[in-house]
Amino acid sequence: MSSPRTLRLHETDNVIIVLDTVARGAALAGGLTAAGPVPRGHKIAAAPIPAGAPVRKFGQVIAFAKTDIAPGEWVHEHNVMLQDFERDYAFASEARAPEGLLPGETPAIFEGFRRADGRAGTRNYIGILSSVNCSATVADYIADEVTRSGILADYPNIDGVVPFTHGTGCGMGSKGEEFDILARTQWGYATHPNFAAVLVIGLGCEVFQIPRLKEAYGIVEGEHFQSLTIQESGGTRKSVAAGVARVKEMLAFANSSRRQTVAASELMLALQCGGSDGYSGLTANPALGAAADILVRQGGTAILSETPEIFGAEHLLTRRAESEAVGRKIVDLIDWWTDYAARAGGELNNNPSPGNKAGGLTTILEKSLGAVAKGGTSTLRGVYRYAERIDRKGFVYMDTPGYDPVAATGQVAGGANVLCFTTGRGSAYGCKPTPSIKLATNSDLYRRMEEDMDLNCGDVLEGVSIEEKGREIFQTVLDVASGTRSKSELLGYGRNEFVPWQLGAVM
Q1: Which residue blocks in 298-347 are alpha helix, DSSP H?
Q2: 432 φ, ψ to 5°?
């Protein structure tokens, strides 16, 4: 019987990853013998690691030994710990000039919807937004009534009428960062290029007033934007009827949009991961990073997010920042989150989740180093607040929580018109109005959840190169942007995944 497969990621690493389940006494590469059983995707010591010494993976510190660890021992939460250590931020030391096409690389295109503001969409929805949770049910009823009526069959260029409801909008301050976050999120969706038209439904007396949103962002009502409130419309039934009538008035305008050839530079790709495992940083995440690099060379935009999940790997981003000023924004975010977590009685290193640990991830440092790989190698061109409109091309960063639906909502509000989501445990997620492409980190997951997974990145462990898989991901992005339905779209995901970040107290 052949020895279980193992992988050493960097010459300075003192752990190796086991790619197959290991039994006690199994002979491993490098003359190692397994001291006990080890699940696949987990780590084994490749050399003696004295108590207090750093544990290294990816050529980086991921933990410190809690006890002496002998070669061949399983390295996981039972024998490692976290402690502070100095990171060299080396601001902008690895920044490069703007990336262009490589020799032989041709300009890429997709078939998208050109909007009046010049941006390009990948889908053509009519959205119904609720300004407050009190109007969520009416927003749902309007979308359901239009869909049930069958009228959309007469308008084949419309992808659907979808409600976007949430749990806030009142019981909050009328100014401050919490209010601003909701305003940026709602405005970002109301003006998103994947919507042909939007209807906003309010109650009427809520803190988050629709007229204030319109005034702040210069939104003018017309064929592409309408609003109403339940109180002014005369109650639930009359509001539903009025909303259905408004949507029907929008149908001809929305249906007039046609796909046309658009340069890939108009794509804004959200980078997400969830349900990560020990393979995430080996397969899907670096392959997605390779695809992000291709998009950046094409003149497009790639958005990395989830600040609690870059903790411990932020120095890799500060080095790639185009300037020290951009790099320091990353450090400032880490400082803010450290304080934010402490105020809530938590800490950033309480990650990974139980599922992450079962999949082989031991510490937040290890998880973060793998997560940052989604961002590829391009220079960091900008750092944005949650749901802030992204106005720069290239690789950028948006501050978001690590919770996937909240993070993705911010990225979409910022303008992301396509999304890639890597998962090793099998996250059930989809997104509207932005299509989500699911990337499985391992072949076993892909086989078990093939109806949910768009691509299998597990074949990277079977000989497919990161570069080749990156090109496959990039082509899939172009195909989905051009109208091919992702697996999550075919399953109907996206209606309940609109989750704006609730930052402050509920009053």
Answers
A1: 314-320, 324-343
A2: -130, 145
